[in-house]
Write a structure and sequence with these properties.
single chain; alpha/beta; Rossmann fold; 4-stranded antiparallel sheet; 7 helices; binds adenosine-5'-diphosphate; binds magnesium ion
Amino acid sequence: MSTLLQVKEVTKTVRSNGEDLKILKECNFAISKSESVAIIGRSGSGKSTLLSLLAGLDTATSGEIWLAGQPLHQLNEEKRAFLRKKHVGFVFQSFMLVQSLTALENVMLPLELSLRKNAKQQALELLEKVGLSDRGHHFPNQLSGGEQQRVAVARAFASKPDILFADEPTGNLDAENGQKVEALLFELNAQAGTTLVLVTHDRNLAKRCQRQLVMHAGELSEETAIREESTQNNGRVHVA
Ligand SMILES: Nc1ncnc2c1ncn2[C@@H]1O[C@H](COP(=O)(O)OP(=O)(O)O)[C@@H](O)[C@H]1O
Ligand SMILES: [Mg+2]
């Protein structure tokens, strides 16, 4: 299998209260095309920081990140933006929809940005796929959390990314909506071969992924077997 993402000795140090704080410590791993990978770990362990580096939204302090054969660590913001547009999709815990646009317009956005023909027709089909064909003209604040996240997933589908990063995509949803969003993500993985990298607190969601990486105080390791603790609390691990 070919490597889509390669991370070598990546660190991230931030300045906090006049001190250097190393929030990522020499992370190493590789992800192949079409793999599904979960990143799990306690709150504050560095998961979101890592995800933003992998997606080229932020830069590492040291180390190398190769995405689709390109050295993200050597590219300026403009070139990283180009690489993101070409390969990357995101789904965030807080949905990140454009509030002044309707659901349909939010889904049309990446299609229009890439000058795709029939943007409206494709966006309508995607909304139907996520079960929201009757909500196209609603603005985000007129939709429930679950509906907003499904719009965000439809928008991510629209850009047909090679790799989709999702930061706690079901974290703000009830069980039913969480399952709908989860099903959509794995459908994208199965049908389009989209590589999935999910940060999650949900052990059941993590278990559906082929691999699990565990973040512990900025150090990343591969978890070989997820313990069966999840069945005792409905699959959700509660952290402070
Ligand atoms: N820009 C920053 N300045 C200072 N501290 C930060 C910054 N970004 C993240 N942190 C700290 O780094 C740690 C990891 O954060 P984060 O990646 O958001 O963790 P997680 O997503 O696992 O909850 C936390 O202790 C957080 O407070
Ligand atoms: Mg986080």
